[in-house]
Amino acid sequence: MIFFFSGLGNSRYVAEKLSMEGERMFFIPELERNQCYRFVLEKDERLGFVFPVYCWRAPKLVSDFVAKMHIEGKPEYTFAVATCGDDCGKTERYFRKDLQRKGLALDAAIAIQMPNTYVNLPGMDVDAVEISTEKLQKAEARISEVKTLLEQKARVSQMIVTGAASLKSDVVQPLFYKFLVTDKKFYTTDACVGCGLCAENCPLENISFAKGRPQWNGNCTTCMSCYHHCPHHAIQFGKTTLSKGQYYFKEK
Ligand SMILES: Cc1cc2nc3c(=O)[nH]c(=O)nc-3n(C[C@H](O)[C@H](O)[C@H](O)COP(=O)(O)O)c2cc1C
């Protein structure tokens, strides 16, 4: 069985491609909405997690879910596949600890580079079209490679770590969650036509409508799905997104 989270579709696509025929797939926000935390593994069933890297760790909502989940039966093989724009920092180390607390071992920790979705800080933007296209092309081959590794139950550590991992994952990540993971900075410009795509695409169902305009209701992980899906670029996060690009995964 595979548990996954995805804001803009990269990790959803990867999770679907990596799944084996008939394998059970669970979208973590859906499980949270239904308060579903107990799962029974079948004999020889593998246990997998697929998620985007958020500030050089697994998204907090993924770690929080793992803390609540109860797995009955011993997984034959456990893997984590993280999609990232460029760098995972200490994602593996932290996620391994999340699992350890539940008495679970991690056999494979693997990263797949995908187009970047984080735009909320100065200097951070989506990839240029050529880079994004190249990443998606390379990802196809990488996904096939990873699928084979997982089917062979390979014990591997293949995260992408570019440097200053402790500073990023130990020091910056807690500050990031304290100051930047909030929906209070979202607003719409006059370009908003009230089409509702932001609400439709919010994985946490955090957006409702009042007087034809979206309002955010406090349960946000800043995946930026609302921002990226807006066909009029009318959703902004403070001032930093005003001149940034948009991206979400589109199946060819
Ligand atoms: C809040 C947030 C934080 C991110 N932090 C990182 C990061 O630390 N390192 C990285 O390489 N990419 C980072 N990214 C980019 C995503 O990990 C990457 O684009 C991922 O493939 C998005 O997956 P999704 O489409 O399934 O949401 C971040 C994106 C968001 C929205």
Tell me what the structure shows.
The protein has two domains: 2-172, Rossmann fold (3-Layer(aba) Sandwich); 179-237, Alpha-Beta Plaits (2-Layer Sandwich). The radius of gyration is 18 Å and the shape is globular. It is built from eight helices and twelve strands. Helices cover 33% and strands 19% of the residues. With 252 residues, it is an alpha/beta fold. The protein starts with a strand and ends in a 15-residue tail after the last strand. The chain has helices spanning 10-18, 28-33, 60-68, 91-100, 129-151, 165-179, 197-201, 225-229, and strands at residues 2-4, 25-27, 38-40, 47-52, 70-72, 78-84, 108-113, 157-158, 186-188, 207-210, 213-216, 235-237. The chain binds flavin mononucleotide (FMN).
Shape: globular
The tally of beta strands, per DSSP, is 12
Question: Biggest β-sheet, characterized?
Answer: 6 strands, parallel
Helix percentage range: 25-40%
Low-confidence parts, pLDDT < 50 over ≥5 residues? none
